[in-house]
Amino acid sequence: MGNYNRFIATDVNKIMAQGKLKIERRASELSIRLNFYCAYHQVLIMRITAIYLFVIAAFYFSDEVNEAYGSVRTAFIVASVLSSIDFVRILYGVVNKSYITLTPSELQLRFGPLPMRGGLKIPSREIEQFVVSDRHLSYQTRSGGSVQSTYFILSLIDKQGKVHKLITTKYATGEGFSLNYIAAEMANFLQVPCQQMPTEEL
Asked: Mind listing the UniProt keywords for this protein, alphabetically (predicted)?
């Protein structure tokens, strides 16, 4: 068993010092910027590396593969095609950031600079509470083992009981402790309840 999130720093101050999380408080506005790049993207890098190593090893040690590819350059092209989706995800992870702007009248979530779905605008008066929860996923490996990935989700619940996801640590820097911190800051700003993950579970 392994955990994909083991790469992430476990201290909010360290994440802020690294520039991965920035929170600015003003009298009438709370501004939060959170980097996308996280353990999930480091796993993608390892997966891309594994694909390249597999293709190049096959090129060198298999006459059939060598004949089919014809050159190392072709082998690299094949590996690039196989890992192209992961490349795009890493690009988004390196370049994009989450931006949350909270005022007494509105909460706005946006992503940039690359376009991405999932933005949100909701009147602040409609926000009932902020909630941090966890989710566990298990992946079966080809060798018959399993890898467990645990990630955390920061959501808001509106007065109609609808859940709106704001941040997931599967696609953004930080563990549950950083989402607890962000949730507490937003809840204090709006003076609404905040349900956090127990620290012993993080």
From this structure: Membrane, Transmembrane, Transmembrane helix
